[in-house]
Amino acid sequence: MEPEPTAGAPAPLPEALPRLLRRELAIGGRSIPGRLVFASMSMLGHVAFRELLDEFGGCALLFSEMCSAKTIPTENPRVSNHFRWRPQELPRLVCQIVGAEPEAMARAAARIEAEGFFGVDLNFSCAAATICRRGGGAELLRRPEAALSILERVRRAVRIPVTVKFRMGRGDDPEAAAAMARAFEAAGADALTFHPRVAPDRRARPARWEAIGRVKAAVRIPVFGNGEVVDAEGCLRMLRETGCDGVALGRIAVARPWVFAAWTGLAPAGREPWRETALRLHALLERHFAPRDALVRLRRFMFYYAANFTFGHELFRRVQGAADMGAARQAIEGFFAASPGVCRVPNRNYFQ
């Protein structure tokens, strides 16, 4: 697949979108100031990236990267690479947990509540083999009774909002997904994030937005649509076509962290800060992580960020080959010194 044409002036923001995205939304007994949220992403939704998002603004609710429920009760946030946060983000930060045992998930949720998080999110969506082999993530959709048992036990353990991220399951059946959503609501979920792909599908096929509409029509609690929103027009279309209450951004948020500010109308139209954003995240990673851990996370970020450029594979290659954070910074500066061409939307080859 060839890259998209290079960008000229930014595409005009659909007039209705900021108004729709800046409406308050109630989740459980709490509320958030908008409808555009950051989806949980493993090794990407860490404390450094969340700080970057906060600096741009516009994100109504943050989800942490996936955390193991078994480790959370004894984790030390000062040294943990996953269960770590800034105090100022807690009022709108949801901690996502993964696991297969109801009691372990409940103990983790209780710790999350005690630390002051906005809420806890149950991962019934991750299709990674390492997670599914342990019975967690999307594997629980094979055993709905087990997923509901976890949700019910967590619901009894905490008073903060409990949310669920899930996908179609192992069968490509929107009605089955809608039935699952009804069961989650009945078991005590306060909101759902729904990704309309089957569990083994790693984005090989388009997301079925009509399934988001089926899920939303089946429940009264808020539903965040997730999947293949890469521009403002697509965000508006998802809201209108599916009736979902909000949109959870994943890959596009990593590729373009200012997207929340841009689509909510908080950022003025103009030059997008390509070089500055990459270097700012580099600095935040150095602040929050040990050098080797910072480099691993910078490389993961660059896989998505490189999708913005016509020769982005060169940026990705240079950072992947960097021996340390100093060399990685030189690689970033060298790439942008050549004024690379920018794609209108990120190259989907990187996003598969």
Describe the structure.
The protein has 352 residues and is α/β, with parallel strands linked by helices. The chain has two domains: 17-263, Aldolase class I (TIM Barrel, Alpha-Beta Barrel), CATH 3.20.20.70; 274-351, Bacteriocin As-48, Chain A (Up-down Bundle). 42% of the residues lie in helices and 14% in strands. The strands form two sheets. An eight-stranded parallel beta barrel has the order 3-4-6-7-8-9-10-11, surrounded by five helices. A two-stranded antiparallel ribbon has the order 1-2. The chain starts with 16 loop residues before the first helix and ends with a helix.
- Widest sheet, order of strands: 3-4-6-7-8-9-10-11
Number of structural domains: 2
What is the percentage of strand-forming residues? 5-15%
Number of helices: 15
Helical content class: 40-55%
Write the layout of secondary structure elements.
Layout: H1 17-21, E1 25-27, E2 30-32, E3 36-38, H2 47-56, E4 61-63, E5 67-68, E6 93-98, H3 102-115, E7 119-124, H4 129-132, H5 144-157, E8 162-169, H6 174-187, E9 191-198, H7 209-218, E10 223-225, H8 232-242, E11 246-249, H9 251-255, H10 259-263, H11 274-288, H12 291-305, H13 312-320, H14 325-337, H15 348-351
Parallel strand pairs: 3-4, 3-11, 4-6, 5-6, 6-7, 7-8, 8-9, 9-10, 10-11
Antiparallel strand pairs: 1-2
Helix pairs in contact: 2-11, 3-5, 5-6, 6-7, 11-12, 11-14, 12-13, 13-14
Q: Key features?
A:
alpha/beta; 2 domains; 15 helices; Bacteriocin As-48, Chain A; 352 residues; two-stranded antiparallel sheet; eight-stranded parallel β-barrel; TIM Barrel
Summarize the structure.
With 352 residues, this protein is α/β, with parallel strands linked by helices. The chain has helices at 17-21, 47-56, 102-115, 129-132, 144-157, 174-187, 209-218, 232-242, 251-255, 259-263, 274-288, 291-305, 312-320, 325-337, 348-351, and strands at residues 25-27, 30-32, 36-38, 61-63, 67-68, 93-98, 119-124, 162-169, 191-198, 223-225, 246-249.
